[in-house]
TrEMBL record:
Annotated TM spans: 144-169
Membrane-protein topology: Single-pass type I membrane protein
Stored CDD domains: STKc_IRAK
Source species, domain of life: Eukaryota
Main location: membrane
Catalytic activity: L-threonyl-[protein] + ATP = O-phospho-L-threonyl-[protein] + ADP + H(+); L-seryl-[protein] + ATP = O-phospho-L-seryl-[protein] + ADP + H(+)
Residue intervals of the Protein kinase domain: 208-487
Record: residues binding ATP: K240
Organism: Acorus calamus
Name listed for the protein in its UniProt record: non-specific serine/threonine protein kinase
Family membership noted in the UniProt record: In the N-terminal section; belongs to the leguminous lectin family. In the C-terminal section; belongs to the protein kinase superfamily. Ser/Thr protein kinase family.
MF-aspect GO terms: ATP binding; carbohydrate binding; protein serine/threonine kinase activity
Length: 534
């Protein structure tokens, strides 16, 4: 029983949805008739059978003893109206497990069946002749004999165990000295299973050879390497070495391994492991992205991306952010969505990376923070003015990314050029939004201006100054896919209509004060002395 999650008792059945707090629960048991309830003890070794039915928005949970000849009770243990439309996907995995959190496994699944059409399939489960896990009372003689045997074995093995422990501690100390020349921090113990030996990092990068250096920034350097796997084979990796073990670099480092190290999605960069040799040397090992960053493909000297590739990458990023906001057990705010943090694998699939500023919090709760973090040009106004980070601040960054990718222009350019959002909005007000498309795309052709205008308007809506006006990231993702029925908005047309509704007040900000009321000036950014980011 855990009062933090409002458990009714220590022996109950509950229905949880995206949380450890049950939306419905009942003391474990079953109804022998309509009015007679038979309580049971779940961990007494008895085999139980459970039925979970979901039909027409109603979830029924029924259970009984597997050995009960009456089989399924007519009255469910729990019956609740539950809307799972936002949970179910067109294609998804369904399964069952016997996990009990951080405790040792106390339950076993002896058989299960699932069907989305045949609701009598459970009748084919054979529940007779199942193994008996109930504890049987032992005789006094058996107990005495067992205790004596255990005592004798313990006496015989004591010396051996002590010797083994001494040898193991000595060996671990030697390995520790080979891996790290400093004290072991508490966080190292927590994340030790994902540690990679420093000697393997050296071998993978040829001693951090300059020929393997593929990137360098304020936080450190990134090397390409080939890592030998324990199970055999090799894998190409990107190895990030932090410049110094300062308080901020450790915070960045731990944020990466505590978030990205537990997240798995095809549109997120995979974190393979970490390493640490001595103070001032923190290392993260990522899956290698063959085609570099989206930033380098948009603004570098490589061949320009065509329209279809750019839109597909934006869809990939949106799908990754949807997973961060809705698809994991907790909500993850990335807080630094930008082109240089979007990587491209060998198939040109977009993957969001760099989770150094990411924060995790429970669904339905706001993130408690007053620090301003992010990158200038991608930060929502409320982040700088209030230090407030929500899922809508990630949507703002995504909107700027959309404009950046379509226009081929950075959010804030050197030389005092007009900020990207203001520039694009001015073109829309003048009826010339199509001219905002990257000139390289226009020269290549192969795109429809009407579609490009819709994507640009979506970017403007996501980057609106009012957080309540911005769509959710799921709405933005579905708009890029051209899908309909988005929580009150009729697909793309619904979002664009929403943009038209707010454009009047936005235009007033543009014409009256140079967007001062909507977007940040350089003076406001300078006055934000707590600004973190790059």
């Amino acid at each position: 029983m855990n009062p933090d999650f409002q458990d009714i008792d220590a022996n109950h059945v509950g229905v949880d949805l995206h949380s450890l707090t049950s939306v419905a629960s009942h003391t474990a048991g079953f109804w022998s008739g309509r009015d007679f309830f038979s309580p049971v003890t779940l961990n007494d070794g008895t085999n139980y059978q459970a039925w979970i039915d979901y039909r027409d928005g109603k979830l029924n949970v029924t259970m009984s003893r597997a050995s009960d000849p009456a089989n399924r009770p007519s009255k469910p243990l729990i019956s609740i109206d539950l809307d799972l439309e936002g949970v179910f996907e067109d294609e998804m995995y369904v399964g069952f497990c016997a996990a009990t959190g951080l405790l040792m496994q106390r339950h076993r699944i002896l058989g299960w069946s699932f069907s989305d059409s045949n609701f009598s399939l459970s009748e084919d489960l054979i529940t007779s002749n199942l193994p008996d896990f109930r504890r049987h009372r032992r005789s006094r003689w058996t107990t005495f004999a067992t205790a004596t045997s255990v005592a004798c074995i313990a006496v015989i093995l004591t010396a051996t165990v002590i010797v083994c422990l001494v040898l193991m501690i000595s060996k671990q100390r030697e390995e520790m000295e080979g891996r790290s020349e400093g004290t072991v921090e508490d966080w190292e113990v927590e994340y030790w299973p994902h540690r990679i030996a420093y000697k393997d990092i050296l071998a993978a990068t040829d001693g951090f050879s300059a020929s393997n250096l593929i990137g360098q920034g304020g936080n450190g350097k990134v090397y390409k390497g080939v890592l030998n796997l324990k199970e055999g084979g090799v894998v190409p990796v990107a190895i990030k070495c932090f410049a110094a073990e300062s308080g901020e670099s450790v915070k960045w480092f731990l944020s990466e391994i505590s978030t990205l190290g537990r997240l798995k999605h095809r549109n997120l960069v995979s974190l393979i492991g970490w390493s640490k040799r001595e103070r001032g040397n923190l290392i993260l090992v990522y899956e290698y992205m063959e085609n570099g960053s989206l930033d380098s493909r948009i603004f570098g000297e490589s061949e320009a991306l065509d329209w279809e590739s750019r839109v597909r990458i934006l869809r990939d990023v949106a799908a990754g952010v949807v997973y961060l906001h809705e698809g994991w057990e907790q909500r993850v705010l990335h807080r630094d969505i930008k082109a240089s943090n979007v990587m491209l694998d060998e198939d040109m699939i977009g993957r969001l990376g760099d989770f150094g500023l990411a924060r995790v919090h429970s669904h339905g709760r706001d993130l408690a923070t007053t620090r301003v973090v992010g990158t200038v040009g991608y930060m929502a106004p409320e982040v700088v003015r209030e230090g407030k980070a929500t899922d809508k601040t990630d949507v703002f960054g995504f909107g700027v990314l959309v404009l950046e990718v379509v226009c081929g222009r950075r959010p804030i350019e050197e030389g005092g050029s007009q900020p990207l959002i203001e520039w694009v909005f001015g073109l829309m007000e003048g009826g010339d939004l199509g001219s905002a498309v990257d000139p390289r795309i226009r020269r290549m052709g192969g795109y429809e201006e009407e579609e490009a205008v819709r994507v640009l308007k979506l970017g403007l809506l996501c980057a609106c100054d009012d957080p309540m006006t911005r769509p959710t990231i799921r709405q933005a993702a579905r708009a890029l896919e051209g899908k309909h029925g988005m929580d009150g908005c009729d697909g793309v047309s619904g979002l664009l209509e929403k943009l038209r509704e707010v454009s009047g007040s936005w235009a007033g900000s543009v014409n009256g004060s140079g967007l001062r009321g909507a977007h940040l000036t350089f003076e406001e950014l300078k006055q934000s002395t707590s600004l973190e980011g790059r």
